[in-house]
Amino acid sequence: MSRRRGRRPGPRLSWLLWCGALLSPAAGYVIVSSVSWAVTNEVDEELDGASTEETLPALLGDSGSLWQRSFPASAHKEDAHLPPPEGAARARSPPAPPGMFSYPREGGTRLRPGIARFLAHASAWGCLATVSAHEKIPGLPFGTCLPISDGPFDNSTGIPFFYVTPKDLLVADLMKNPMASLLLPESEGEFCRKNIVDPEDPRCARLTLTGRMVAVSPEEIEFAKQAMFSRHPVMRKWPRPYEWFFMKMKVEHIWLQKWYGGVADISREEYFRAVPRKA
């Protein structure tokens, strides 16, 4: 009786059997990425050596490998129907923004001069309005913003000093008409920021100083330098060809607004006698 000679499985069948052996313990896993590359003999031997029962779970559990464990879609749903655990704090909705008239500010005429002096000392910049001398807008108001200082940090004078150049239009205006108005807003103060009040809101105090602009005398040059350069150190490096010089305002009128309605007229005596007080 002739014995039928056994046939070896072909290469394609061997490949399918090898894939089946590899995938059978990988139930519950999905391919999250796939890459095709040419497999060299060294890589083929490494894969054959790694395809064992001991190393396969480690390969499948690696978060950076080709395989990641899959879960049913229900496992990803939020457990909204379950009650919160004991002791868990309930999420509270954020408090509503305060009302329009919920910011009481201390008033009284006796406090106004101190608030005005505070704004004059705390402000690093202001808006200066002049009477234009430009040929296109003669006699019309002309405004510009520029850095100011009423003295070093530890010495408030209430007199605003400026560092300007003759090439600026406002200087040309002042040569013909030295009268000007300086607006100092409280936008840099703490009240508007803490209470989330718009800087243009009337509850943000604003000070308007009106007076005559003059060049600083030689006797005051050193103090003007201390006043401006201590608050604005970069001014020391401004280009010299622009012929910078110091000016100051001889304050004649003081107007303060810190609430809805009109402005308060503060006398010069009260203004210069007062001690800076936060608005």
Automatic annotation (TrEMBL):
Cross-referenced Gene3D superfamilies: Electron Transport, Fmn-binding Protein, Chain A
Domain CREG-like beta-barrel, first and last residues per copy: 113-272
Domain of life per record: Eukaryota
Cleavable signal peptide: 1-28
Region (Disordered): 74-99
Matching SUPFAM superfamilies: FMN-binding split barrel (SSF50475)
Chief site of localization: secreted
GO cellular component, one term: extracellular space
Assigned keywords, A-Z: Glycoprotein, Secreted, Signal
Family: Belongs to the CREG family.
Name of the molecule in the record: CREG-like beta-barrel domain-containing protein
Natural source organism: Bos mutus
